[in-house]
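Marked as duplicate of an earlier ticket. Keeping the data here for the record.
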Amino acid sequence: MTIPMIIAIAITVFMIILIMTEKLPFGAPPILACLLMVLFGITDIKTAFGGFSNATIIMLASFMAIVAALQKTSLIGTFRKTILNMANKGGFKAYILLFIIVMLASSIFGTGSTAFYVLTLGILSTIQYTDKLPRGKVIAAAGFAANHPLIPVNVTLQYGIVIAVLGAAGSGITSVSLAKFSIVNLILSLAYVVWALIGYKVLPNKNVEDTEIDANKSKETVYDLPKWKENTTYAAFIAAVVGMILQSKVGDAGYMIPGLSACLILAIGVLNFDEIRNNIGAPIILMSAGVIGVADALGSTGLTALVGETVANMLGTNINPFILIFVFCMLTSVLATLTGSTIGTVYVFAPMAIATCMSLGLNPTAAAAAIVVSGWNGHFLPIDGMPAMVMGIGKYKLIEFWKYTIPMYFIRLLALTAGALLLFPM
């Protein structure tokens, strides 16, 4: 291990400790980590602070402003009242219904869709506080549900990568059952449902509003935008969502549509400039942008490839297939989160696991399927897009966050490994 690797790991650990102890305001530790990465020569300024020019961050910042505008509309007023009524009838039932609805909706977008989880968490952030269903109970469960389609029919991205890594490793396998691969994803989603039902008890029962709001006063919020402004806000919101969804087809222009929509919101006076500025510069944006720089710096040191080679050598050629796949799933998911490059990390670890399986005379399809999917299932470290947003919007302390995410992490990977082996016997 080189000196830059050691320093980069030390800075990352220091950042996590600062987040855990809350010695600095939310969003500040990653910025400090980026400064230290440059100071110690781990990376240059452009790479360290590249997160602030990252297309996803620009899209997210703009979308935060649009969601703030949406909160002034009667539609959100109705949504809040509906959630409040659901909570008053039964908090746990409302909790289940919320994350199931999100999982059904995610079936359209597919696993790990940035557009969908940003949209979901943005809407969840508008939920008013009620002591029967506090936002602390909702944000994490429904937020992570955006990564788990309950009807996994849109799995073409991950499926294509499975075929690619099998080919790259020289396995000779050119065809994998798409139906079976979808069932592996379904098993993973069902495991999340099981954990979400159990996890309700560990999520904090607290108010996580941005400011202290009197419960009676919050119920009397008036939504009095002129009809034309309200309709324009809806149009801007829809345009932003469509732009995010179509980004893969239209390129960078898709990322710019939320920004243009936010400009429209400003131009018609739904939000003033101070409100726009406060939302696009929110702590969650600083956190998300900062961790991208840290992740890029870690990746540039060559840490990912070194870890992969070391683990492959340690496992050797005489190991239980379940343990082999599970270990590589852990490595892939953790380092995908740390480096910020899911597909890149998958392409490093999946061929190693496939080669190991082939040396043991085993069919490597299960390993390929599980390891590819695991790249989108880290989330116990709040230094990637979705977990950072969940922690920021939910205002969870790191210990509260880990009480939910660490068990979730292991339950999902165990189910994923078992499901892959069940559908693709070795």
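See parent ticket for discussion. The two ends are 34 Å apart (CA to CA).
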